[in-house]
């Protein structure tokens, strides 16, 4: 990312970069596991069909056609979900970008009372994001239903045809077919289908990452000629002839710019707004694409660029100026003095906050200028640093910094202040990307009427100190009383509080269900250290079978418990994530009712992270789908066993299992005398019949 050119970086939104570095990269991580299920599922299908073919012959053809239909539907679902996921991540990028802009500009938002309009704007983006997430969940439901019904329909096709042909029933083939089809069902449900979905998301993520990695990087352009030697006076030179350049993402062009400069000269670039002044500096830095002309530089020339928007990190003033360089007290003091930096209560140890939140626009500009002076480079490119400060500070900076510290450097200054033009060695006058004239102040005043008109227009331009305006605005921003904010908090977080209470009560209710046996009959069985779990399976009568058949029936009953476990866990996760879904709405409203003093006490990056960490704010839709699926499966699996319950018995069963269970049954006389019980003891399951 640090190697991207300014044009390429400008084409990438901050929300897209954040989303790509968090969600997309995590999606790519799962490729190594998901990709193997594709060839494993295909190979298993071929092997199973060959084995079944060897037993039933042409009867398996219709089942093979159905299998191909299942695979086609799964692949189609994957492709559709890929398209949906592409649309969804675009909305996520837009939401994250919008929230970052709101958080970074929260002072302006509150000063102009723009909270509600921006909240509505975020909600519109979220509604579109919700739409695509719901579509993805519907396709996921089709995939799950297709996988769960595979074994049943496959079984009906094979044995239905055998019954239609009046073929003899073979128990050996039935057992083999049951096991093989169960394997296929598991493969298509948990392997192949999931892989199709994840790989579709993987391709979307890879395309986004590849697009970002293929973006244009900064490089020394071919039209910039590097000369090895200094000129005859042993000075650095810059020679520009008929320079033309353009932005890749814009139609604006800089055309036919010609000038030369040497060490110790001051080049001032002037012109109206959007005339190409900053574009000229970007071209010299190699950030703007050159389409004509040539630029000659010395090999040892080093640039130092001061942009209009200062880049400041959350640390002290001293660390922002040093910017990783070793501390030199003399040079440091000279730099901050030349930049006109004001004294703070804690001096250069003052913390500037996130993005320099405590600094005004003028103070940020002076900090960037002091940082540039401390680096002591050869060529300085100053992009209008005087516009952010008042007249007195601007004069101090021009005299002490530009004419003082930089008198032995080559300096190219962009400015609108005409009072300093007479000090320039050369003035470049630009208009709409064209160079209208160049020369000294007196030469332009005599030869260029456009320059004379421009100077008259910009004479006596009133200026304000941005620091005082910012401080006044900040001091006047108070939103609501304490009572109003408390009422707002109750309205915002009331549902979340009730949801948490419900989950806590449900959790203790489950514990009570597990201990219901001990609560009813603790007087009959003395509590001991070993506490087995008894699962009561009513209406499952004792069968006169032993060995593998009994195990088969127990395994047949076990999925009921798994479905119930999935059912309850999915419900809890769905409710939890439904609350998570509302967090963004609540956090936006919370940001709306919070005053500036409270916001300033928290770094803006942390505030933005609270919104960006909601990676999938509508994940509850998908988990609710799993809850519905598992609920249906649990109801179908317990069609005969409508009163499945679980009890927890205190007391050791090692001495006399029959006695303890008999005593327990006496306290529960409503149970059937021939019910089956599964008893967990010492991490092992044993079967006990009540009779």
Automatic annotation (TrEMBL):
UniProt xrefs under InterPro entries: AAA+_ATPase, ABC1_TM_dom, ABC1_TM_sf, ABC_transporter-like_ATP-bd, ABC_transporter-like_CS, ABC_transporter_C-like, P-loop_NTPase
Domain ABC transmembrane type-1: 1-129
Major location (coarse): membrane
Protein name in the entry: Uncharacterized protein
Matches recorded under Gene3D superfamilies: ABC transporter type 1, transmembrane domain, P-loop containing nucleotide triphosphate hydrolases
Segments crossing the lipid bilayer: 37-54, 60-78, 145-164
One Pfam family this sequence matches: ABC_membrane
Annotated GO MF terms: ABC-type transporter activity; ATP binding; ATP hydrolysis activity
Membrane topology: Multi-pass membrane protein
Species assigned in the record: Rotaria socialis
Domain ABC transporter stretches: 238-457
Keyword field contains RNA-binding: no
Keyword ATP-binding: yes
Similarity comment: family membership: Belongs to the ABC transporter superfamily. ABCC family. Conjugate transporter (TC 3.A.1.208) subfamily.
UniProt GO cellular component terms: membrane
Cell compartments where the protein resides: Membrane
UniProt superkingdom: Eukaryota
Alphabetic keyword roster: ATP-binding, Membrane, Nucleotide-binding, Transmembrane, Transmembrane helix, Transport
């Amino acid at each position: 990312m640090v190697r991207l050119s300014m044009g390429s970086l400008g084409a990438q939104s901050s929300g897209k970069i954040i989303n790509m570095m968090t969600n997309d990269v995590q999606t790519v991580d799962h490729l190594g596991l998901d990709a193997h299920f594709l060839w494993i599922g295909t190979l298993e299908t071929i092997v199973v069909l060959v084995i079944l073919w060897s037993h039933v012959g042409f009867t398996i053809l219709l089942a093979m056609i159905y299998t191909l239909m299942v695979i086609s539907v799964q692949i189609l679902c994957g492709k559709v979900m890929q398209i949906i996921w592409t649309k969804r991540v675009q909305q996520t990028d837009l939401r994250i970008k919008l929230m970052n802009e709101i958080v970074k500009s929260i002072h302006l938002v509150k000063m102009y009372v723009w909270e509600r309009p921006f909240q509505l704007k975020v909600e519109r983006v979220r509604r579109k994001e919700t739409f695509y997430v719901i579509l993805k969940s519907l396709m996921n439901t089709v995939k799950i239903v297709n996988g769960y019904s595979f074994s049943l329909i496959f079984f009906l096709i094979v044995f239905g045809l055998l019954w239609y042909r009046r073929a003899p029933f073979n128990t050996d083939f039935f057992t083999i077919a049951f096991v093989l089809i169960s394997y296929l069902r598991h493969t298509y449900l948990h392997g192949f289908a999931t892989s199709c979905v994840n790989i579709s998301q993987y391709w979307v993520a890879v395309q986004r990452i590849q697009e970002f990695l293929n973006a244009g990087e900064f490089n020394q352009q071919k039209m910039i000629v590097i000369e090895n030697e200094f000129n005859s006076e042993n000075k650095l030179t810059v020679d520009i002839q008929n320079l033309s350049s353009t932005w890749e993402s814009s139609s604006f062009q800089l055309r036919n710019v010609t000038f030369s400069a040497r060490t110790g000269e001051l080049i001032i670039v002037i012109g109206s707004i959007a005339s190409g002044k900053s574009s000229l500096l970007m071209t010299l830095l190699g950030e703007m694409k050159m389409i004509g002309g040539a630029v000659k530089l010395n090999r040892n020339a080093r640039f130092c660029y001061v942009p209009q928007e200062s880049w400041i990190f959350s640390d002290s003033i001293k660390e922002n100026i040093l910017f990783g360089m070793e501390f030199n007290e003399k040079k440091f003091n000279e730099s901050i003095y030349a930049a006109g930096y004001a004294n703070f209560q804690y001096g250069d140890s003052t913390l500037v906050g996130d993005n320099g939140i405590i600094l005004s626009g003028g103070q940020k500009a002076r900090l960037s200028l002091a940082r540039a002076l401390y680096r002591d480079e050869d060529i300085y490119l100053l992009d209008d640093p005087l516009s952010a400060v008042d007249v007195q500070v601007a004069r101090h900076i021009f005299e002490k910094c530009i004419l003082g510290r930089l008198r032995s450097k080559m300096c190219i200054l962009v400015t609108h202040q005409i009072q300093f033009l007479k000090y320039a060695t050369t003035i470049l006058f630009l208009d709409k990307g064209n160079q209208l004239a160049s020369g000294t102040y007196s030469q332009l005043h005599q030869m260029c009427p456009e320059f004379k008109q421009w100077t008259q227009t910009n004479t006596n331009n009133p200026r304000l100190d941005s620091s005082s305006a910012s401080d006044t605005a900040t001091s006047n921003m108070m939103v609501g009383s304490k009572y109003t904010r408390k009422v707002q908090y109750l309205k915002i977080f009331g549902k979340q509080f009730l949801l948490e209470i419900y989950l806590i009560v449900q959790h203790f209710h489950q514990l009570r269900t597990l201990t219901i046996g001990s609560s009813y009959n603790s007087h009959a069985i003395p509590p001991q250290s070993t506490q087995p779990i008894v699962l009561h399976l009513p209406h499952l009568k004792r069968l006169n079978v032993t060995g593998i058949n009994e195990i088969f029936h127990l395994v047949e009953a076990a999925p009921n418990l798994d479905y119930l476990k999935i059912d309850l866990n999915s419900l809890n996760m769905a409710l939890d994530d439904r609350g998570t879904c509302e967090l963004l709405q609540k956090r936006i409203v919370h940001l709306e009712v919070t005053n500036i003093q409270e916001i300033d006490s928290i770094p803006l990056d942390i505030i933005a992270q609270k919104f960006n960490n909601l990676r999938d704010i509508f994940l509850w839709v998908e988990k609710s789908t799993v809850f519905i699926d598992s609920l249906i499966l649990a109801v179908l699996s317990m069609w005969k066993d409508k009163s499945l319950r679980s009890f927890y018995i205190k007391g050791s069963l090692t001495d006399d299992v029959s006695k303890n269970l008999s005593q327990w049954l006496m306290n529960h006389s409503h149970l059937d005398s021939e019910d089956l019980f599964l008893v967990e003891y010492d991490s092992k399951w044993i079967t006990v019949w009540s009779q």
